[in-house]
Amino acid sequence: MINHPQLALLLANWAAFLLISIGLGWLITVGVLRIAQVTKSVAPPEPIPKLERKPQPPEVMRGGTLIGILERFLITSAIMSGFFSLIPVVLAIKGLGRYPELKSAPGASERFIIGTLTSVAVAVVIGMIGREALAYVDPGLFNRAF
């Protein structure tokens, strides 16, 4: 049976590893995307006659940061709790949700793949470390039926 101080320690460890996954995952993903330079270089626009409107810059997929945070949170939680089958569900939802944007935006698919693989790799590693830390705090935690 888990006593109150042990439960508090388990919850604190859980929260710490989720925050590490979210923060470190964001830093590493941004760094990898900058290194990869997956933006397509665009030739400078030709001079625009005064009667025409200026062309709009190519749209960037919105919500990527929040989606990445949720992705790492869910994947890290799934690994730490032992619900490994949740990982493909998270990735499928992300892929299906972004499909229309990926289809229409040139260069977006490379950025999506690099960002997703980096984000998932960080979440998996932190989740595995977190799971081991939880098992260290309560060795019988993953042997019990809930």
> What is the beta-strand fraction?
under 5%
Counting DSSP E segments of at least 2 residues, the number of strands comes to: 0
N-to-C series of helices and strands:
HHHH
CA distance, first residue to last residue: 12 Å
Measured on Cα atoms, how large is the radius of gyration? 21 Å
Which residue ranges are poorly predicted, with pLDDT under 50 across at least 5 consecutive positions?
Answer: none
Most strands sheet: none
Please indicate the count of domains: 1
How many helices? The count is: 4
- Structural class based on helices, strands and sheet pairing: mainly alpha
How much helical structure, as a percent, in the residues? Answer: 55-70%
Instruction: Determine the mean pLDDT.
Output: 83
Shape: elongated
Tell me about this structure:
The chain is mainly α. The protein has one domain (10-36, 63-140). Helices cover 68% and strands 0% of the residues. The protein is built from four helices and no strands. The chain has helices spanning 4-36, 64-81, 86-104, 108-137. 17% of the residues are buried. Keywords: Membrane, Transmembrane, Transmembrane helix. The chain crosses the membrane at residues 7-28, 73-91, 112-130.
Please describe the topology of this protein.
Blueprint: H1 4-36, H2 64-81, H3 86-104, H4 108-137
Helix pairs in contact: 1-2, 1-4, 2-3, 2-4
Features:
146 residues; membrane; transmembrane helix; mainly alpha; transmembrane
In short:
With 146 residues, the protein is an all-alpha fold.
